[in-house]
């Protein structure tokens, strides 16, 4: 279970310094994180531990994460900003 303090910390950690990542992560934490199932919240926390270069490639759909957990949360983030 993630508290409001945890969510504020995650919002801060979502500020990566790379505009493309900031524009995806910060709104995602503020608007969607609370409604995720716990396992997807854990996946997002795991995603934040990755290197910015990898995150950029995955979120710009130039590569796919090998880890299925990371692939799932990347898809959730992208589906949120690229609805079909």
UniProtKB/TrEMBL annotation:
Localization of this protein: Cytoplasm
Pfam family for this entry, one: Sdh5
Gene Ontology CC, one term: cytoplasm
Keyword Iron-sulfur: no
InterPro entries with a match to the protein in the record: SDH, SDH_sf, SdhE_FAD_assembly_factor
Record keyword Chaperone present: yes
Assigned keywords, A-Z: Chaperone, Cytoplasm
Any Gene Ontology biological process: succinate metabolic process
Domain of life of the source: Bacteria
PANTHER family: FAD ASSEMBLY FACTOR SDHE
Recorded family membership: Belongs to the SdhE FAD assembly factor family.
Protein name: FAD assembly factor SdhE
């Amino acid at each position: 279970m993630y508290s409001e303090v945890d969510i504020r910390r995650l919002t801060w950690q979502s500020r990566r310094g790379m505009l493309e990542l900031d524009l995806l992560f910060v709104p995602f934490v503020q608007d969607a994180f609370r409604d995720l199932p716990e396992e997807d919240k854990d996946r997002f926390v795991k995603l934040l531990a990755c290197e910015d270069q990898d995150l950029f490639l995955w979120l710009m759909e130039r590569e796919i994460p090998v880890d299925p957990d990371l692939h799932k949360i990347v898809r959730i983030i992208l589906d949120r900003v690229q609805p079909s």
